[in-house]
Prior knowledge:
Radius of gyration: 17 Å
Shape: globular
CATH topology: Rossmann fold
Helix content: 25-40%
CATH superfamily: HUPs
CATH class: Alpha Beta
Number of strands: 6
Bound molecules: iron/sulfur cluster
Largest sheet: 6 strands, mixed
Number of domains: 1
Low-confidence stretches: none
Strand order of the largest sheet: 3-2-1-4-6-5
Distance between the termini: 29 Å
CATH architecture: 3-Layer(aba) Sandwich
Amino acid sequence: xxxxxxxxxxxxxxxxxxxxxxxxxxxxxxxxxxxxxxxxxxxxxxxxxxxxxxxxxxxxxxxxxxxxxxxxxxxxxxxxxxxxxxxxxxxxxxxxxxxxxxxxxxxxxxxxxxxxxxxxxxxxxxxxxxxxxxxxxxxxxxxxxxxxxxxxxxxxxxxxxxxxxxxxxxxxxxxxxxxxxxxxxxxxxxxxxxxxxxxxxxxxxxxxxxxxxxxxxxxxxxxxxxxxxxxxxxxxxx
Length: 238
Ligand code: SF4
């Protein structure tokens, strides 16, 4: 299969190209995506947060054996690993890969000092998230992400199809128009497993050293790297 939208031809076609089924919502976008890219050329990079649960259910409807990669930093909450197991049990045909960094935590401590996330979280994210995703995406033409526009100011301009200069890929974001309430209505309606930390005021869940619960009316990403100016792990910034 030859993909119609690639990083290389983006500048020639992006103005004229639109997803035929975009108006039908996320499922239409995913049908387009799995029709446009062969299975070895597209991956969903999943955090297994609430948006991920919706996307996984939708992806499974379109591509039951889709490749899903989880960036396993070795610093995730036990509840996160638990929900991955539950999702794999619910959707046994999905190919869920836990991608680990080149350095173990001990090796990272030996090279950079202990608790790098406290002193230089950008370097820590680079080692444990960005480089592993880059390794995965060198084999791909497109990746899927669960970004929603209302999540944060830095995500407000996200499009359904994005030229991703960082990873030289096409980034597909089927949920940009979804609200938090819509995400949860979908999860409850379909009785899908989800990370139990969501019930304890963790709307956005990453590694445990860098994730805190939020206040009652807090921004959904307020608990990530709280107390620092860092707002993204580096996967979605140039
Ligand atoms: Fe390291 Fe924190 Fe980034 Fe996880 S979120 S990779 S612990 S800096």
